[in-house]
Input
Amino acid sequence: MKITFEAQHLCVPDLRGIPQYSINLINALCRRQRNEYALIFFDKNKERNNGHKYIFPLFNKTNIQKIECNHESYIDMIKYRDIAEGINYNNRVGVESDLFHFMFPDCMPRLINGKLVVTVHDLIPIMYPALLNPKLKPLFEQGIKRLENNDATIIADSYNTKNDLIKLTSINENRIHVIHISYNEDIMYPDEDINKIKAFNINQPYILYLAAIVPQKGIESILEMFKQIAKMQPDIKLVIAGFLTYVHPAILTKIIKHPYRSRIVLTDYVTEDQKRGLISNAMLFLFPSKYEGFGIPVLEAMACGCPIITSNVSSIPEVAGDAGILIDPMNTEQLVYETNRAIQSDSLRKEMREKGLKQVKQFTWEKTAEQTEKVYELAMQS
Output
């Protein structure tokens, strides 16, 4: 069976989120060698004119066929979408395949020859449009409308996303298959080598937030919580790791004006080694997100042996299981109480660490790939 992946979203400098899902899943499937695989991307000669240094190295350990659609770019695909609506996708890209796997619904074409599998990671553009670029909502809604009107087989990252699809669309639940994703198992593991984080000059015990510095992730609750924790625990620092280039302006103002600003460390971008070191050496990992399609930061923290305090909403309980302390992300006082309780108790943190290392073993890309292959088989039979 020939399976072709739509990988246009890999033509970007920031390979987090959906790009990471695509890279890890495609490589895991290729390692298993159960099918013939190819990938398509639209980059307007970017890859070809730059010595194949962007997408090609992501898959240098496989012999997957890479099909460059050099006549247009990812931006063209969005900007001129209405022009392309009447063009058959196979004719447009010059590819025939038994099955096409689109990694998110936005880029799914209307006309295509071959079975379709589409991954839906979350419904944030519909449920919380204010949290994202307003241009994304109509594109996402268009993709969801196509899913409602065709017979594509759907993969959801979590039962929470499946339930959202059932609740908010007319898609039959029998078309939706839940496959949990994983994390980068080669990079995220316990590593208490303090040299990894020397650059940040952290010379005190610290609690850690490491994710995008945006409102929906609960960072404002953490800042409020730290006003009280800093009084209760005078030796504790708060480390906030994430791209400062993309920090929400209101959050940056709150950090700057925080009464304990001198005990807040902003790392900006961190390397993978630094990320592993920061998580492994933290007393606690805080992730009180208001909504997640899955919650990879929770997996990464558990993989590094760091106790977690996270949310009891959306998909996060599926990921954390009984390994973390789950709180209402809107209840700052609960976050204060549980953070203080965990800081004070070595035995509690040890128990959480052991549970996390056990829980995270349920999630591997090998398992994700195996389950995805079964969905391909079902799609071919539909």
